[in-house]
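ERR on first pass: missing label on line 2. Operator R.T. fixed the label and resubmitted. Corrected input:
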Amino acid sequence: MSQLFPGAVVEPVELADANGMVCIRTASASDVENLSVYFTGLSTTSRNKRFSGARSDLGVVAAECIAKSGGLDNFTLLAELREEGRGRIIGEALYAYDATARHGEFAISVADAFQRMGLGLQMMTAMETRAIDLGHEMIAAETARANAEMRGLARKAGFNDTGLGDWQSVHLAKRLSR
Ligand SMILES: CC(C)(COP(=O)(O)OP(=O)(O)OC[C@H]1O[C@@H](n2cnc3c(N)ncnc32)[C@H](O)[C@@H]1OP(=O)(O)O)[C@@H](O)C(=O)NCCC(=O)NCCS
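pass 2 clean. output:
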Protein backbone atom coordinates (compact mmCIF):
# COMPACT_ATOMS: atom_id res chain seq x y z
CA MET A 1 0.00 0.00 0.00
CA SER A 2 2.70 2.47 0.94
CA GLN A 3 6.40 2.50 0.04
CA LEU A 4 7.09 4.28 3.31
CA PHE A 5 5.28 1.63 5.38
CA PRO A 6 5.71 -1.84 3.87
CA GLY A 7 2.93 -4.22 4.91
CA ALA A 8 0.47 -1.45 5.78
CA VAL A 9 -3.16 -2.57 5.62
CA VAL A 10 -4.67 0.93 5.57
CA GLU A 11 -3.28 4.33 4.63
CA PRO A 12 -1.01 5.73 7.39
CA VAL A 13 -2.91 7.96 9.80
CA GLU A 14 -1.86 11.09 11.64
CA LEU A 15 -3.07 11.18 15.23
CA ALA A 16 -4.07 14.54 16.62
CA ASP A 17 -1.56 14.67 19.50
CA ALA A 18 1.09 12.23 18.26
CA ASN A 19 4.25 13.58 16.73
CA GLY A 20 4.46 11.40 13.63
CA MET A 21 2.57 9.12 11.29
CA VAL A 22 1.00 5.88 12.50
CA CYS A 23 1.09 2.82 10.31
CA ILE A 24 -1.30 -0.08 10.90
CA ARG A 25 0.35 -3.20 9.56
CA THR A 26 0.41 -6.96 9.91
CA ALA A 27 2.82 -8.31 12.54
CA SER A 28 5.61 -10.72 11.67
CA ALA A 29 8.06 -12.94 13.58
CA SER A 30 10.57 -10.11 13.86
CA ASP A 31 8.07 -8.10 15.97
CA VAL A 32 8.08 -10.43 19.02
CA GLU A 33 10.63 -8.44 21.02
CA ASN A 34 9.07 -5.04 20.31
CA LEU A 35 5.61 -6.41 21.08
CA SER A 36 6.90 -7.70 24.40
CA VAL A 37 8.32 -4.21 25.15
CA TYR A 38 4.94 -2.73 24.22
CA PHE A 39 3.00 -5.08 26.55
CA THR A 40 5.50 -4.34 29.35
CA GLY A 41 4.90 -0.60 28.90
CA LEU A 42 1.13 -0.84 29.25
CA SER A 43 -0.27 0.30 32.59
CA THR A 44 -1.28 -2.53 34.89
CA THR A 45 -4.92 -1.57 34.43
CA SER A 46 -4.76 -1.65 30.62
CA ARG A 47 -2.75 -4.87 30.63
CA ASN A 48 -5.17 -6.61 32.97
CA LYS A 49 -8.08 -5.52 30.79
CA ARG A 50 -6.33 -6.69 27.64
CA PHE A 51 -5.56 -10.15 29.03
CA SER A 52 -8.60 -10.42 31.33
CA GLY A 53 -6.25 -10.76 34.29
CA ALA A 54 -2.61 -10.44 35.31
CA ARG A 55 0.16 -11.78 33.05
CA SER A 56 3.84 -11.47 33.92
CA ASP A 57 5.34 -13.64 31.16
CA LEU A 58 5.04 -10.92 28.54
CA GLY A 59 7.77 -12.27 26.27
CA VAL A 60 5.84 -15.54 26.05
CA VAL A 61 2.56 -13.67 25.52
CA ALA A 62 4.09 -11.67 22.65
CA ALA A 63 5.49 -14.83 21.04
CA GLU A 64 2.06 -16.50 21.38
CA CYS A 65 0.34 -13.54 19.71
CA ILE A 66 2.68 -13.69 16.73
CA ALA A 67 2.51 -17.49 16.52
CA LYS A 68 -1.30 -17.45 16.64
CA SER A 69 -1.39 -14.98 13.79
CA GLY A 70 0.52 -17.38 11.54
CA GLY A 71 -2.53 -19.27 10.21
CA LEU A 72 -4.55 -18.37 7.15
CA ASP A 73 -7.55 -17.07 9.09
CA ASN A 74 -5.73 -15.36 11.93
CA PHE A 75 -3.63 -12.22 12.10
CA THR A 76 -2.16 -9.64 14.44
CA LEU A 77 -2.25 -5.97 13.52
CA LEU A 78 0.24 -3.52 14.96
CA ALA A 79 -0.06 0.25 15.10
CA GLU A 80 3.45 1.62 14.72
CA LEU A 81 4.37 5.25 15.32
CA ARG A 82 7.20 6.36 13.02
CA GLU A 83 9.28 9.06 14.68
CA GLU A 84 12.77 10.15 13.65
CA GLY A 85 13.08 7.17 11.32
CA ARG A 86 12.28 4.63 14.05
CA GLY A 87 9.17 2.62 14.73
CA ARG A 88 7.43 2.23 18.09
CA ILE A 89 4.46 -0.07 18.66
CA ILE A 90 1.58 1.86 20.22
CA GLY A 91 -1.30 -0.54 19.64
CA GLU A 92 -2.13 -4.12 18.70
CA ALA A 93 -5.12 -6.22 17.76
CA LEU A 94 -5.18 -10.02 17.63
CA TYR A 95 -7.82 -11.58 15.39
CA ALA A 96 -8.64 -15.30 15.24
CA TYR A 97 -11.37 -17.10 13.31
CA ASP A 98 -13.48 -19.72 15.08
CA ALA A 99 -14.53 -22.08 12.28
CA THR A 100 -17.08 -23.86 14.49
CA ALA A 101 -18.85 -20.71 15.62
CA ARG A 102 -18.21 -19.20 12.16
CA HIS A 103 -17.08 -15.86 13.47
CA GLY A 104 -13.86 -14.00 14.12
CA GLU A 105 -12.86 -13.03 17.66
CA PHE A 106 -10.42 -10.33 18.69
CA ALA A 107 -8.53 -8.67 21.51
CA ILE A 108 -7.15 -5.15 21.27
CA SER A 109 -5.11 -2.59 23.17
CA VAL A 110 -3.73 0.90 22.66
CA ALA A 111 -0.81 2.35 24.65
CA ASP A 112 -2.09 4.45 27.54
CA ALA A 113 -0.55 7.70 26.27
CA PHE A 114 -2.31 7.27 22.91
CA GLN A 115 -5.75 6.26 24.09
CA ARG A 116 -8.81 8.32 23.19
CA MET A 117 -7.22 9.65 19.98
CA GLY A 118 -9.19 7.45 17.60
CA LEU A 119 -6.52 4.76 17.15
CA GLY A 120 -8.65 1.94 18.59
CA LEU A 121 -11.37 2.68 16.06
CA GLN A 122 -8.83 2.85 13.22
CA MET A 123 -7.51 -0.57 14.21
CA MET A 124 -11.01 -2.04 14.44
CA THR A 125 -11.75 -0.75 10.94
CA ALA A 126 -8.50 -2.21 9.59
CA MET A 127 -9.28 -5.52 11.30
CA GLU A 128 -12.76 -5.64 9.78
CA THR A 129 -11.34 -4.89 6.32
CA ARG A 130 -8.91 -7.81 6.66
CA ALA A 131 -11.67 -10.11 7.97
CA ILE A 132 -13.93 -9.22 5.01
CA ASP A 133 -11.05 -9.89 2.61
CA LEU A 134 -10.74 -13.35 4.21
CA GLY A 135 -14.44 -13.96 3.50
CA HIS A 136 -15.55 -13.83 7.14
CA GLU A 137 -19.10 -12.71 7.83
CA MET A 138 -19.22 -12.01 11.54
CA ILE A 139 -16.99 -10.74 14.34
CA ALA A 140 -17.81 -11.35 17.98
CA ALA A 141 -16.15 -10.43 21.25
CA GLU A 142 -16.68 -10.78 24.95
CA THR A 143 -15.63 -8.03 27.32
CA ALA A 144 -16.03 -7.23 30.99
CA ARG A 145 -19.25 -5.40 31.77
CA ALA A 146 -17.06 -2.92 33.70
CA ASN A 147 -14.86 -2.18 30.65
CA ALA A 148 -16.48 1.10 29.55
CA GLU A 149 -13.69 1.84 27.04
CA MET A 150 -14.10 -1.42 25.15
CA ARG A 151 -17.86 -1.28 25.26
CA GLY A 152 -17.78 2.31 23.99
CA LEU A 153 -15.30 1.45 21.24
CA ALA A 154 -17.35 -1.57 20.13
CA ARG A 155 -20.55 0.49 20.08
CA LYS A 156 -18.86 3.15 17.98
CA ALA A 157 -17.54 0.45 15.61
CA GLY A 158 -21.10 -0.82 15.08
CA PHE A 159 -21.17 -3.85 17.40
CA ASN A 160 -24.38 -4.79 19.20
CA ASP A 161 -24.92 -6.50 22.54
CA THR A 162 -26.19 -10.00 21.70
CA GLY A 163 -27.57 -10.51 25.20
CA LEU A 164 -25.49 -13.71 25.54
CA GLY A 165 -23.27 -12.30 28.29
CA ASP A 166 -23.67 -12.80 32.01
CA TRP A 167 -23.48 -10.56 35.08
CA GLN A 168 -19.73 -10.06 34.55
CA SER A 169 -19.38 -9.96 30.78
CA VAL A 170 -21.02 -8.57 27.68
CA HIS A 171 -21.12 -10.48 24.39
CA LEU A 172 -20.89 -8.24 21.34
CA ALA A 173 -21.19 -9.01 17.65
CA LYS A 174 -21.15 -7.32 14.27
CA ARG A 175 -22.18 -8.72 10.90
CA LEU A 176 -19.67 -7.77 8.21
CA SER A 177 -20.78 -6.62 4.81
CA ARG A 178 -18.77 -6.28 1.64
C1 LIG B 1 -10.40 -0.17 24.52
C2 LIG B 1 -9.25 0.63 23.87
C3 LIG B 1 -8.53 -0.30 22.88
C4 LIG B 1 -9.85 1.82 23.11
O1 LIG B 1 -8.83 2.40 22.32
P1 LIG B 1 -8.79 3.97 22.01
O2 LIG B 1 -7.74 4.20 20.99
O3 LIG B 1 -8.69 4.73 23.27
O4 LIG B 1 -10.25 4.19 21.38
P2 LIG B 1 -10.71 5.40 20.45
O5 LIG B 1 -9.93 6.63 20.78
O6 LIG B 1 -10.69 4.94 19.03
O7 LIG B 1 -12.19 5.63 20.95
C5 LIG B 1 -13.30 5.25 20.17
C6 LIG B 1 -14.55 5.32 21.03
O8 LIG B 1 -14.47 4.38 22.09
C7 LIG B 1 -15.14 4.91 23.25
N1 LIG B 1 -14.17 5.10 24.35
C8 LIG B 1 -12.82 5.08 24.27
N2 LIG B 1 -12.29 5.28 25.49
C9 LIG B 1 -13.32 5.42 26.35
C10 LIG B 1 -13.42 5.63 27.75
N3 LIG B 1 -12.32 5.74 28.52
N4 LIG B 1 -14.65 5.71 28.28
C11 LIG B 1 -15.76 5.58 27.55
N5 LIG B 1 -15.75 5.38 26.19
C12 LIG B 1 -14.53 5.30 25.62
C13 LIG B 1 -15.72 6.23 22.82
O9 LIG B 1 -17.00 6.01 22.28
C14 LIG B 1 -14.74 6.66 21.73
O10 LIG B 1 -15.28 7.60 20.84
P3 LIG B 1 -15.16 9.16 21.22
O11 LIG B 1 -13.74 9.45 21.63
O12 LIG B 1 -15.55 9.85 19.94
O13 LIG B 1 -16.13 9.39 22.34
C15 LIG B 1 -8.26 1.19 24.94
O14 LIG B 1 -9.00 1.91 25.90
C16 LIG B 1 -7.45 0.13 25.63
O15 LIG B 1 -6.37 -0.27 25.13
N6 LIG B 1 -7.90 -0.34 26.81
C17 LIG B 1 -7.14 -1.34 27.57
C18 LIG B 1 -7.20 -2.72 26.94
C19 LIG B 1 -8.64 -3.20 26.80
O16 LIG B 1 -9.51 -2.92 27.60
N7 LIG B 1 -8.89 -3.97 25.71
C20 LIG B 1 -10.20 -4.53 25.46
C21 LIG B 1 -10.30 -5.93 25.89
S1 LIG B 1 -9.45 -7.01 24.78
